[in-house]
């Protein structure tokens, strides 16, 4: 405990606090831009840390990482465009809240939930790092396949009143995930000899198109129908989440923070899975599950607490075992290596002061995020006062900019435009787009781990049911599908 306390004290130097404040500010801004995300933000600023002391450099990058995960919710709530993949879950209730005239409450809920989830994760990181890392290592290819399949089943079954349409969307996402070079054979699939498709269809341009560009199209359509009044309702200056509402969310935040921390400790899973699992658990635990998807405050709180808690969870295997829990953490590990340190079991033995400084810096960083986030909300609410006939073209322009910035490629802009049209059509026929996005994100994880598990077991499919964790996850996926179909059948009989 003495070393942990000293780690906290070491945070409060001018250089370390300055690094945290600067990293949080940069992370919020870049995270809110669709197409950037935490990994890109870290990659942009990684070279700049070479001239910084190792302590300040690591705290700076961790601050960017955590703040970018929160920043993704800003664009998700305001313009229906997730700045990060994890923020796709926040759209489900965050954007409807904004449309109902409660953008301040949605943004405030996202902020306090992110800070609370991150704080929970920081405590777990400091106290339970080794056990969590060992749990994460229990996930082999069969468990990873089952986890991804379970995530897709949950989202396909719960994001629409029509389960069949949800599964159609998910199957389309899995089909799109097969575009590109086969990971095992090396042949191109559905590329039509187009070099831009050899690496597959990137999920970021797809998300920007399905969510933001499609929303821009709908805004333009509404202007034509209803005039300039279409769009956001008036905003009261002091509107936001109340302390009473925050207290009512305490169990949702605690539960989601734990979920995010645990899933973060599983290398390669990602924040999207944590966010949607937390959302599903919150919906099942809620007294008013029917309100989810319509602007429910718990539907904003759960995914935001989970995806920020995942930051601390993802640091667990990196610091304890030298295994990156995500692409963003891999960049953080690269920063340690650049400064002559080796992430893993020997880091705690050889540089305990640095490790405990990371724990303390991550904890303090969450409160800096709260401070700067509150200032940011006021600025964002001013943005909403822009007339919708100006806002709609602005959103469309930002989508094209975001798609280009993602890969510096015009082909990404074309993909984004195509899926913008697809998203607009899906809205017309009431097909949910979230299952498509999640299936596209997890499709590669499904395929690679399915084939890896079969190769390891010499083609024996029983490998998925003889390992306890994968068997439990597969049973959960099947039960989710069966129960959702029974629920749909019950509604059909009731309406008959």
From TrEMBL:
The keyword Ribosomal protein does not apply. It comes from the Bacteria. InterPro entries: DUF112_TM. The keyword Membrane applies. The chain crosses the membrane at residues 6-33, 40-68, 74-95, 107-129, 141-159, 166-185, 258-279, 321-342, 354-380, 386-407, 414-442, 462-484. Keywords: Membrane, Transmembrane, Transmembrane helix. Residues 17-438 form the DUF112 domain. This is Tricarboxylate transport membrane protein TctA. It comes from Desulfocucumis palustris.
